[in-house]
Amino acid sequence: MSESPSQVGSLRNYSTLNHINVLKQITEKSAEYNFPVYVALIDYKKAFDGWSGPQCGQHLQKGMFIHN
Which domain of life does the protein's organism represent (predicted)? Predict the structure, then answer.
């Protein structure tokens, strides 16, 4: 299975530290130019472990979220 370029966390020569550095640079620029940045880190596997792939996509498209 081929990973898309946006999902490089487990690929050779890509490190989590690279992604952390990008977030650091974004927050620095945010402070420099005085604009807000919002970051959401979501473990989709845990968040939607009870839903099938198509079912999950349908709920996300409709904006329907179930809160426990």
Answer: Eukaryota
Mean pLDDT in residue range 35-40: 85
Place of tokens 């979501």: 42
Alpha-carbon span 21 to 27, nearest angstrom: 10
Distance CA 57, CA 23 (A): 27
Please count the other Cβ atoms lying within 10 Å of the Cβ belonging to residue 8: 14
DSSP 19-62: HHHHHHHHHHHHHHHT---------HHHHTTTS-HHHHHHHHHH
What integer pLDDT is reported at residue 5 of this predicted model? 59
5: its two tokens: 């370029």
pLDDT at 63: 65
CA dist., res. 59 & res. 65, Å (int): 7
